[in-house]
TrEMBL record:
GO terms for molecular function: UDP-N-acetylglucosamine 2-epimerase activity. The keyword Calcium does not apply. Gene3D superfamilies: Glycogen Phosphorylase B. This is UDP-N-acetylglucosamine 2-epimerase (non-hydrolyzing). The gene is wecB. Keywords: Isomerase. InterPro entries: UDP_GlcNAc_Epimerase_2_dom, WecB-like. CDD domains: GTB_UDP-GlcNAc_2-Epimerase. Its EC number is 5.1.3.14. Coiled coil: none annotated. Belongs to the UDP-N-acetylglucosamine 2-epimerase family.
Length: 374
């Protein structure tokens, strides 16, 4: 059986790596990896961590690329790959422009599609943008929906998908964390190594989403700055996204604070180890909402809606919006109220047990034997 795995960004690579490694262990599968390079440097870092060498690299990245650029270059490059290798199944993960382009290309070539991390929904087509549209469009084309949770399955059922095509697997990001967490990890940045993570309350901040650019991001950063100025025992670590607009706002709102460490984007390995040592995460990311609970770290989600509803329901994450007062008060609460903190830190992680990739490969092979899928 030929299985083609396609991904293009760092988050996709992190979550697809365990599946690629699980496929590699099976003697009855020919596993082929193609990357678009939608992200370049960040993607390569993850490939190095997991020891994955792509069979095909479209290398589409260009500075200032538009969503149209990504989709068109991916479609053109993947067309040749599909014609050359004629896979039995395409595997994609998540909701990037690479994911939708790859699914569309597979559809054009009559290849079945497996969608890893299927069924996530914010129920707002424009937030996150363009991810909500990408995952819904990919779902329309997919034959196999690998849903991390029961809530994801219910989303798909409400949209009319056949329950026989939906499989609850857990999230592969939990599998990936097993490859990265190291108690003796040493950071390249001396300032990070100098932080006493046991005595300091370290806040890990990430913020980059398109819908937060401008006034929402200014409000978020202003709230974090107030916290940093008011609490001597707080250290803020902020890997600043490469987007010049993010950097401009970060400089204006966070510049000059001694206990706010604005650093360059981190490789996945040091980033996951920083997260494991943090007291609290403030983020507009999607994946971090799943990762941090694995370490017992509360997550404050600075967005107006989230597709990771399970974390909100379980209590591992809290959706606080982007208003300065709400962000400030929710951070302050977790710094000062041990009961509120423990309620989140000790909540059960709803995203799985670290065996999602193994389940996905088992399902693929079983369906191959039975001739399953539409």
């Amino acid at each position: 059986m030929k299985v083609l795995s396609v991904f293009g960004t760092r988050p996709e690579a992190i979550k697809m790596a365990p599946v690629v490694l699980a496929l590699k262990e099976r003697g009855d599968v020919e596993s082929i990896v193609a990357v678009t390079g939608q992200h370049r440097e960040m993607l390569d870092q993850v490939l190095d961590i997991f020891g994955i060498v792509p069979d095909y690299d479209l290398d589409i990245f260009t500075p200032g690329q538009s969503l149209t650029d990504i989709a068109v270059r991916s479609l053109r490059g993947l067309e040749d790959i599909f014609k050359t290798i004629k896979p039995d199944l395409l595997l994609v993960q998540g909701d990037t422009s690479t994911v939708f382009a790859a699914a569309l290309s597979a559809f054009y070539h009559g290849v079945k599609i497996g969608h890893v991390e299927a069924g996530l929904r914010s129920h707002n087509l424009y937030s996150p943008y363009p991810e909500e549209a990408n995952r819904k469009l990919t779902g329309v084309l997919a034959n196999y929906h690998f849903a991390p949770t029961e809530s994801n399955r219910q989303n798909l059922l409400r949209e009319g998908y056949d329950d026989k095509s939906i499989y609850i697997t857990g999230n592969t990001v939990i599998d990936a964390l097993a490859y990265t967490e190291r108690e003796d990890f040493v950071f390249d940045d001396a300032a990070l190594n100098a932080i006493d993570f046991k005595k300091k309350k370290t806040i890990l901040l990430t913020c980059h989403r398109r819908e937060n650019l401008g006034a929402p991001m200014k409000r978020i950063f202003s709230a974090v700055r107030r916290i940093a100025d008011e609490y001597d025992d707080v250290e803020v670590i902020f890997p600043v996204h490469l987007n010049p607009k993010v950097r401009e706002i970060a400089e204006a709102e966070l510049g000059g604070a001694k206990n706010i460490h604005r650093i360059e984007p981190m490789d996945y390995l040091p980033f996951s180890n920083i997260m494991a040592r943090s007291y609290l995460v403030v983020t507009d990311s999607g994946g971090i909402q799943e990762e941090a609970p694995h370490f017992g770290i509360p997550v404050l989600v600075v967005r107006e809606e989230t597709e990771r509803e399970e974390g909100i329901v379980a209590g591992t994450a809290k959706l606080v919006g982007t208003e300065e007062a709400a962000v400030y008060e929710n951070i302050r609460l977790l710094l000062e109220d041990k009961n509120a903190y423990d309620a989140m830190a000790k909540a059960l992680n709803p995203y799985g047990d670290g065996k999602a990739a193994e389940r996905i490969v088992d399902i693929i092979l079983e369906n191959q034997k039975e001739g399953g899928g539409r």
